[in-house]
Write a sequence for this structure.
């Protein structure tokens, strides 16, 4: 039986009234990019909000602008309008210091025609200068405005009184079901507990088609796309269910779209620097990362730098070549990229490589199935017996060197953790062990124990046993 849905509340308003600041305040983290420049937010961003025990999903949206619907601002407004479909409530934010504008009045007219209940927030209401703006907000015809300063946290608690009559019953129903599910989870044995949604981040250079790919997977225009490079600024997480066409099994995925990562020397604007930093944080929170390449551009040095960053963070990495439907000399391109990856990322040879098309859907199911397999390897723990057998075989096949005629002794190995898999090898004279032998051990672990394309960490630790003999 599926759980009741948490109530969903959408923040709406013209640019630069403080929507993202309010969003960050409600989720208790700086998830949305905030800047004095208007129009920073372009895609819908969701977060878990709570006010005085009232739990709900909060949705940050792009600033509403009166532009042609084919323009970038116009397409952003269409995304905002779409976010109201299925929402339980809307928070309409106006700037109390600036007072009402014709655009505020236009948005109010639109909201009065919708069926979604609206709570008006007069933001930036700190100080006497905002009092007139708060009073003006009554003229919107959407009820009593709440005087709030999202930046300073003033008046945010008053939102409880505005939202509770609208979403309180649904929030209580969700919380009761959620508590029951958590209790059931705690009673399970650790190995029987579900692993949760696959956290899958899509990264790559600008215009590789990341947002288009996610829209194709979701079957809707959930993310803003277009010919302009760098449309995506925030890292956007979307919870989604995918049905494996082979097994028929439905599996949960948290898709994370990220801003395009250009060469560092080309990243000059403050906002783009914030976007790239946000994309790097998204990699930290992911389990599996898809590096999306553009088939019309091939593999570039910047792609290898992004791949190295992902591997350094210990994430499981796979490569997808997008726009395969327009690729020229496809077989040669695929083999060339495979060879370049193996050469440029020698620390992890054989990364999963998929040819996909966000436009036609080609290869996407295979890519997702591969992502789940990769997460399984990334989370794998090797049994003690199997680990010791591998260790003995590796030592026998290629014994450690003996610098100065005195052998380096590797005594035993243990797996210290997973995600990524981490191993500790104990022995003596380890400071003299050549890096080439460490690479041999890592490559052997990867090849013999089922960690083919996963970053593996091996730490050498001196034997502390005072009775151990060299």
């Amino acid at each position: 039986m599926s759980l009741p849905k948490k109530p969903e509340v959408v923040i709406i308003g013209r640019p630069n009234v403080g929507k993202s600041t309010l969003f960050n305040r409600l989720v208790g983290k700086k998830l949305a990019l905030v800047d004095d420049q208007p129009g920073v937010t372009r895609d819908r961003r969701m977060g878990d909000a709570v006010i005085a025990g009232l739990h709900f999903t909060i949705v940050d949206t792009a600033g509403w602008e009166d532009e042609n619907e084919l323009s970038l601002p116009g397409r952003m407004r269409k995304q905002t309008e779409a976010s109201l479909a299925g929402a339980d409530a809307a928070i309409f934010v106006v700037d109390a210091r600036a007072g009402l504008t014709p655009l505020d009045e236009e948005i109010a007219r639109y909201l009065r025609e919708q069926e979604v209940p609206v709570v008006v927030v007069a933001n930036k209401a700190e100080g006497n200068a905002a009092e007139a703006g708060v009073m003006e907000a009554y003229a919107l015809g959407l009820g009593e405005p709440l005087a709030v300063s999202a930046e300073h946290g003033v008046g945010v608690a008053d939102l409880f009184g505005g939202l509770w009559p609208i979403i309180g019953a649904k929030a209580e129903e969700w919380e009761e079901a959620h508590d029951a599910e958590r209790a059931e989870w705690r009673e399970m044995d650790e190995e029987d507990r579900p692993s949760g949604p696959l956290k899958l981040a899509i990264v790559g250079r600008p215009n590789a088609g990341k947002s288009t790919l996610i829209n194709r997977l979701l079957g809707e225009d959930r993310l803003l796309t277009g010919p302009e490079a760098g449309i995506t600024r925030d890292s956007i997480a979307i919870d989604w269910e995918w049905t494996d066409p082979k097994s028929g099994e439905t599996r949960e995925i948290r898709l994370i779209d990220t801003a395009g990562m250009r060469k560092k020397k080309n990243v000059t604007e403050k906002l783009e620097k914030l976007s790239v930093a946000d994309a790097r944080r998204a990699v930290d929170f992911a389990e599996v990362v898809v590096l999306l390449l553009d088939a019309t551009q091939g593999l570039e040095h910047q792609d290898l730098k992004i791949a190295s960053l992902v591997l350094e963070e210990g994430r499981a990495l796979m490569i997808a070549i997008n726009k395969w439907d327009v690729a020229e000399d496809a077989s040669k391109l695929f083999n060339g990229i495979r060879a370049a990856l193996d050469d440029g990322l020698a620390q992890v040879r054989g990364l999963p490589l998929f040819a996909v098309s966000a436009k036609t859907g080609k290869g996407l199911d295979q890519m997702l199935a591969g992502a789940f397999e990769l997460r399984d390897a990334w989370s794998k723990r090797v049994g003690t017996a199997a680990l010791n057998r591998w260790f003995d075989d590796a030592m026998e096949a290629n014994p450690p060197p003996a610098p100065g005629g005195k052998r380096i002794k590797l005594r035993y190995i243990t797996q210290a953790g997973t995600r990524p898999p981490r191993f500790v090898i104990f022995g003596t004279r380890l400071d003299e062990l050549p890096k080439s032998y460490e690479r041999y051990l890592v490559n052997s672990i990867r090849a013999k124990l089922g960690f083919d394309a996963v970053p593996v960490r091996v730490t050498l630790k001196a034997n502390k046993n005072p009775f151990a003999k060299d």
In short: Confidence is low (pLDDT under 50) at residues 32-42, 188-194, 223-234, 266-275.
